[in-house]
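Cross-check.
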Amino acid sequence: MNSQSIDLINPKQNIGMQNWSIVNDDVMGGISKSKLSMNDENNLIFSGYLSLENNGGFASTRHRFKEQTLASVKSFKIKLKGDGNSYKLRIRQNNRRASYSADFNSSKDRWTEVEILLEDFKPTWRGFSYSDYPAPDIDKISELGIQISEKQEGDFKLEIEYIKAMY
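Predicted model, tokenized:
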């Protein structure tokens, strides 16, 4: 049985390239820095420096989009080339305080494809997990993001060819 997919982020096809923002720990006094750019191969680059100073420790980029009908999505697939760090894929719906995140690992300087199942997403808010929070209402998701945290101090760089929603 073949899976069907839709591109949520695909720079080569100019899909999902608008409405990005950066949210780092400076919102809480930290000094981490990050940016989002494109390279010569038309891949998305999330890079920067993660600092633990001033109680810091996270850097993220977020993409807002109109709520899409993702009701039957089973997973998300990301094709990436990393730096050996672990990252989080985050999803958020407008009417909830918490967002939902799932961890994935990158391999240093090697292309990999990771698949993250919908049930792997756990509710979090300001770094705290919630076991009794409702599951995400997937057809109300309006934000997708990438975050680095977990005390991985230093330079980071994640290259993304695409992020797909898998049905």
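The longest strand covers residues 154-166. Residues 5-166 form a domain with the Jelly Rolls fold (CATH 2.60.120.430). Passed to J.P. for a second look.
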